[in-house]
């Protein structure tokens, strides 16, 4: 438990807006996991009201030894990962996630919602939020794909003595970001001021997580919609901190570095310049950000969002104006995404999507030739059709598009002005 008046991030430098309008409060859940409130309501920002810091659940410390089925005391076990000798990719294997609660879709296993605020006066439920209300909260995942065990160093070994198959602890970290206390809220309907707080959460955690020993990449992302496979029906995102560079970013780094070696330029900067010159695929822009459909879009709905200013590698490097403009851009993108497919009634739909933040790696020297970008996409290809990743995509990672980038952009142009500052 922490004193709400004295918490200061260790590495994160708050912006002027955050110092005046957002308050971060830290505590620990019953099993020891970190928990952060990010409040934007004036009474909590001023300290007139304070958040509940006590988690009454009878949970044991996650790092304490526990008894196995035979009554033997065993130490906590970190998730493991193995390296594919054919591709060099690390594959985390987190069997504990098989037991996580599922509240969304036909495979729901529980009826309660662990991400909802507690109902005042109601019987206690096994929820993750200690208080009866919140604005935005961030906490460590109870069923993480990756986890660091104090005192346990990641050690590379082999599997059954086979030198071809390497294994080590998946010593990363997984966090949950809850956007709103209401289970039925849609991110597209949140006020821009709340999305601004979410941006602050992404920036705050990027800075702090980047300083954890062994972390190589910080990846904030949002899975939205039952069809995407979300397990909890609540407006939220996640932040994965990998102890390796994920395959997609690794491939991008290879290309950005090769481009820099050949031309001396920044590939992501030059892609943006080319899209602005062509204009056809640019779907939105404001003072600080540009959104465009990439020229080789894989998905039937795909938009990349990039900052105008050069030199921005990670979310915590954004200034106040860029964070406000991002909140505006993200809100507009979600609204237009929901309107993209017409079911015939003019109301659009609750679009299933993934929003993936591509940030520069933490330690890799190639980071200086990268550039922050958001990759937003949906596998819905019509109001009543889904793009399934079949043989070519899943078997060979060779995408075959069902449309063209120009058609995607043309549909966005029908939904609103490119200049959203008007």
From TrEMBL:
Cited InterPro entries: GalP_UDPtransf1 (IPR001937), GalP_Utransf_C (IPR005850), GalP_Utransf_N (IPR005849), HIT-like_sf (IPR036265)
Enzyme Commission designation: 2.7.7.12
Keyword presence, Metal-binding: yes
Active-site residue numbers: 236 (tele-ump-histidine intermediate)
GO MF terms, alphabetically ordered: UDP-glucose:hexose-1-phosphate uridylyltransferase activity; zinc ion binding
Keywords linked to the UniProt accession: Carbohydrate metabolism, Galactose metabolism, Metal-binding, Nucleotidyltransferase, Transferase, Zinc
Gene Ontology CC entries for this record: cytoplasm
Disordered as annotated region, ranges: 61-82
Transmembrane annotation, as ranges: none
EC supergroup of this enzyme: transferase
Keyword RNA-binding in annotation: no
Annotated Galactose-1-phosphate uridyl transferase N-terminal domain residues: 81-244
Database matches in SUPFAM superfamilies: HIT-like
Gene Ontology BP terms: galactose catabolic process via UDP-galactose, Leloir pathway
Family listed: Belongs to the galactose-1-phosphate uridylyltransferase type 1 family.
Name of the protein in its database record: Galactose-1-phosphate uridylyltransferase
Organism of provenance: Aeriscardovia aeriphila
């Amino acid at each position: 438990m922490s004193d709400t008046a004295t918490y200061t991030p260790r590495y994160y430098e708050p912006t002027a807006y955050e110092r005046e309008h957002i308050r971060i409060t830290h505590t620990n859940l019953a099993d020891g996991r970190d928990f952060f409130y990010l409040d934007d309501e004036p009474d909590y920002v001023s300290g007139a009201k304070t958040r509940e810091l006590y988690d009454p659940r009878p949970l044991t410390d996650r790092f304490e030894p526990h008894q196995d089925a035979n009554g033997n005391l065993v130490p906590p076990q970190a998730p493991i990962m193995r390296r594919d000798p054919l591709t060099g990719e690390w594959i985390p294997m987190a069997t504990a996630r098989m037991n996580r609660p599922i509240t969304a879709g036909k495979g729901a296993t529980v009826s309660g919602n662990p991400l909802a605020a507690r109902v005042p006066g109601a019987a206690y439920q096994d929820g993750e939020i200690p208080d009866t209300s919140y604005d935005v909260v961030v906490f460590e995942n109870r069923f993480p794909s990756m986890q660091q065990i104090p005192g346990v160093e990641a050690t590379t070994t082999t599997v059954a003595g086979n030198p071809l198959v390497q294994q080590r602890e998946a010593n990363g970290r997984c966090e949950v970001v809850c956007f709103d206390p209401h289970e039925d809220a849609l991110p597209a309907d949140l006020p821009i001021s709340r999305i601004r707080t979410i941006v602050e959460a992404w920036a705050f955690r990027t800075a702090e997580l980047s300083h954890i020993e062994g972390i190589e990449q910080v990846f904030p992302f949002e899975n939205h919609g039952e069809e995407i496979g979300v397990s909890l029906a609540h407006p939220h995102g996640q932040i994965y901190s990998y102890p390796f560079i994920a395959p997609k970013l690794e491939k991008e780094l290879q290309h950005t570095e090769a481009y820099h070696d050949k031309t001396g330029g920044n590939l992501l900067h030059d892609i943006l310049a080319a899209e602005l010159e062509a204009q056809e695929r640019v779907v939105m822009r404001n003072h600080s950000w540009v959104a465009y459909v990439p020229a080789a879009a894989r998905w039937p709905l795909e938009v990349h969002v990039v900052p105008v200013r050069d030199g921005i590698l990670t979310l915590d490097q954004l200034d106040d104006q860029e964070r406000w403009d991002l909140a505006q851009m993200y809100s507009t993108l979600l609204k237009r995404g929901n309107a993209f497919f017409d079911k015939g009634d003019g109301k659009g739909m609750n679009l299933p999507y993934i929003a993936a933040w591509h940030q520069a790696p933490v330690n890799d020297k190639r980071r200086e030739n990268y550039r922050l970008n958001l990759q937003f996409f949906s596998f819905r290809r019509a109001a009543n059709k889904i793009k399934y990743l079949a043989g070519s995509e899943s078997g060979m990672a060779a995408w075959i598009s069902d449309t063209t980038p120009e058609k995607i952009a043309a549909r966005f142009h029908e939904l609103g002005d490119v200049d959203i500052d008007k």
